[in-house]
Design goal:
This protein is mainly α and 247 residues long. Helices cover 77% and strands 0% of the residues. The protein is built from twelve helices and no strands. It is globular. It starts with a helix and ends with a helix.
Length: 247
């Protein structure tokens, strides 16, 4: 149980900007800890989305300004981790198109102009969508999108092999049976918020698979940046479709 709890904390510390402390005895390389970390990703998404709604609750009296601030707090709370992944993947895609090695570019700590353009575009789109949903009184859609997108990433760990020693280590730590059980629990939670959650989960999983395989075909590999860019893409797709549904 201690290793499971360490994995949950590891997920919070890695996939968010929230402060987390570990005991000196914690072994963050243990397979059980790594498995728990991956399976806790959707929970972290729900946590961040819930905190975003809390900010909106506090700032709702100032209208659209409060909604924009709350919408921007969401990526701030995950440290723009996935936004940065979009930038790296965009640069790698353009590098591949011009005949350069995309893996060398994606590992470069600097960001090119195209990466900045795509990263800012995704950030603006998500901010607009979340702001619109908050003002319309449908902030719960953000929780649904955060949950679905990260459940999609858990599934992708079982579909790809990775050109990243750490991500591959995470994949190897996963047990298929445990993954099914935990995803089933998340699905039940999703049904609490949205009776048609099964439908939206199917859309999100299809989007995650399609985006990740499209990127793999263009880049020739999958790594953590590809997963992060896929997450952002799935969130945008789900948020757009949910916006149509409630409009």
């Amino acid at each position: 149980m201690r290793q499971v709890w360490d994995g949950v904390k590891f997920a919070v510390s890695y996939f968010s900007a929230l402060p987390v402390r570990f005991s000196s005895e914690a072994d963050l390389t243990h397979p059980r800890v790594l498995e728990s970390m991956v399976l806790s990703m959707p929970m972290v998404g729900v946590l961040l989305a819930g905190l975003t709604l809390g900010v909106w609750y506090l700032l709702g009296s100032i209208g659209w300004a409060g909604a924009v601030i709350a919408a921007l707090i969401y990526p701030v709370m995950y440290g723009f981790l996935h936004t940065e992944a979009v930038m790296d993947v965009a640069d790698a895609l353009y590098a591949a198109h011009s005949g350069k090695d995309p893996y060398t570019i994606i590992k470069d700590p600097t960001v090119g102009a195209m990466g900045v353009f795509y990263g800012v575009t995704i950030l603006l789109i998500k901010t607009a969508l979340i702001t619109s949903l908050l003002l319309a009184g449908h902030g719960i859609a953000l929780i649904e999108a955060a949950l679905i997108s990260r459940m999609g990433l858990v599934v992708l760990f079982h579909l790809h092999t990775f050109r990243s020693s750490f991500v591959e280590q995470l994949r190897q730590a996963l047990d298929g049976r445990n993954t099914l059980i935990v995803l089933g629990i998340y699905t039940l939670v999703g049904l609490i918020f949205l009776p048609a959650f099964w439908l939206w989960l199917g859309v999100g999983l299809d989007a995650a698979i399609a985006i990740s395989y499209a990127l793999r075909s263009r880049l020739g590999f999958v790594n953590g940046d590809v997963l992060g860019a896929t997450l952002e893409g799935v969130e945008v797709v789900v948020l757009i479709l949910l916006s149509f549904r409630i409009s």
